[in-house]
Amino acid sequence: MITRRLARPASAFASSTWTCPSCTRASIISQTRLPQQQRRAHHVPPLTFDETFRQDGIPGLLSDQGFRIAWTDYQALLVQKLNELTAGEPTENAQTKDLALQFARNPMAASLFNHASMAHNNHFFFSTLSTAPMKLDKLPTLEQSLCTTFGSIGTLQMTMLDTAASMFGPGFVWLIWARNLDNSSVGGGSKLRGSWRILTTYLAGTPYAEAGYRQQGIDANNQNAKSYDEYMRATPPVGAFGAYSKSGQEQAKLPPGGTNVLPVLCVNTWEHVWLRDYGINGKRTFLKDWWDAIDWAAVEQKTPREASQPVQFHRA
Amino acid sequence: MIIRSLILRHGRLALPRYTPGRTLRRCYASQIEETYTNPDQDQQYVAGAEDATKSQVMTAISTQNSIASDDQVARDWEFFHHQKAVTGKIGSEVETHYRPHELLSNPPSPRDITLELLMASQSHIGHSTSLWHPANAKYIFGVRGEQDPIHIISLDVTAAHLRRACKVVSGVTERGGLVLFVGSREGQARAVVNAASMAQGCHLFTKWIPGTITNGQQILGKCKKKVVNHRDEEVKGFEDQLIQKAAVKPDLVVCLNPLENYVLLHECALNNIPTIGIVDTDVNPTWVTYPIPANDDSLRCVQVIAGVLGRAGQEGQALRREGALVGDYPPRQDHGLEPPNEVEKDGSKQDEAERGRTLLTAGDA
Q1: What is the mean pLDDT of chain B?
Q2: Which GO terms describe its molecular function (chain A) (predicted)?
């Protein structure tokens, strides 16, 4: 039986010299202290426009009650669970991303991974929303870089929103920059350093390649053994000229098929985010409103330099 | 036995003013943070406060300062750090907590000396009561433990003495004095070197050779010497005068383990060199001029004290440098050096001319 570390009732206050092997002394101590006396490592992170969002909601996307459910209450719940799960452990001061990467392969710590990854993804979603979102046409370098991969912004929008709408069940859809791991300079000079990609993560899956085992990029219920194997062995299409270069493999310590990724944008398709404001069949409308509410300035800040550099072509 | 009643103070800070925190500007952990940044400034977000949101907006992630060259390694480095900055802290806000390496890479300042910091660094823990030195009874708060009682050092006394020592160090460095940091126990080397580099002084983390000061002519006879001006620029032309000069004695010695370095402290006393030392409950406090009653066995405590003294030296050096730029520096110096005379240079030129003429005339019959 997998024992879950949740707050135990007052029966834990009884002092006893024997503790069962799954309960460490430290976690018993943290449970016998009153909540006010406990030192909580994790707190709800402040958003840039937290105050305005709490009063008026996110303009064009969520009402104030919707924002309260999606962020204020839900993130507080995740943080509380994180504190309970890591109290007294050596990892109690670790960041959520580090927790997700560390425990991705540990089925006994599945709950900890889920809450850490969900806290990370949820905060990421809200970090690209603002009270005065900047439009993409004001950021020409980013727009051009996206068009290089997707052809047009309309295609990017359609792909992302359709992917999100067709996902059955909650999850996230990410826009990531995937680096070209093949470091050989064939053809001389500079070439494309990587490309943009759209990634899906069901439930609390993580987009980072170092925790690729818990990416949860497909709905395993829809797959058969062959297609699932194909997914697990899939190599990224861009830049994979033969085997990966040695330096790239060594430095990244990635699982097979992984690559260096940097997420810049994501949409949270969990129902509790949009259910109150859009109703049960309002997912499409929510996604359309979300696209108009994206603050592309925040996305541009996250974009790496190599993504916004125009591609240079050298004469042979 | 010394007994004092412990009165719980109300209204004190829940957290010490100095907490080992994160800084966004540092690239390498091996570099010491030059200007001390208050780690709490990121955490002054109060829900509903107006300037809080502004401060959040202002702290933009500016990691892409360097221009990535064609070098793949440089590009990978830049990408790695950009990714770390963008995605590393997202998810939850983790409270600032103790991280041991930060005592060396970003040491606390004298203004961050608090009783909470000293207690967290275990500076109040003394030795067994049977091993004490009665001369430092006035620094001891009381006794703890029934079976193996130990002495507890008064934290307020430690804080006061440490602040005084900081004043001494910054005063000496402000006037261009040389501070020597000594710490010969295992693990103290890095703290000693850091403190000396901040105060622009000297360090020693191995055994002190007896006689280095009293028999300096012999032991340090062959060491390099140089002359620097008020702006710390080396001045050439004194080489022949420096051959006869003895090595410079330190103007202040900071010793992190006086129990093992009593010879050094005795030599300093013979030569009127003031000393600062960490005095535990079993150490003789009269060995040093300015004792700091604290725990010399805890590496964390030693790193805090060395860091704080190094920062004090850094502040004194900064003041001295500012004064030197303006022209405000002490005029009277008893170094006994004479300005290098220019007659010798002309003389050598004359010799060359003479030689040339003699060579020319040598060809004549």
Answers
A1: 83
A2: metal ion binding; superoxide dismutase activity
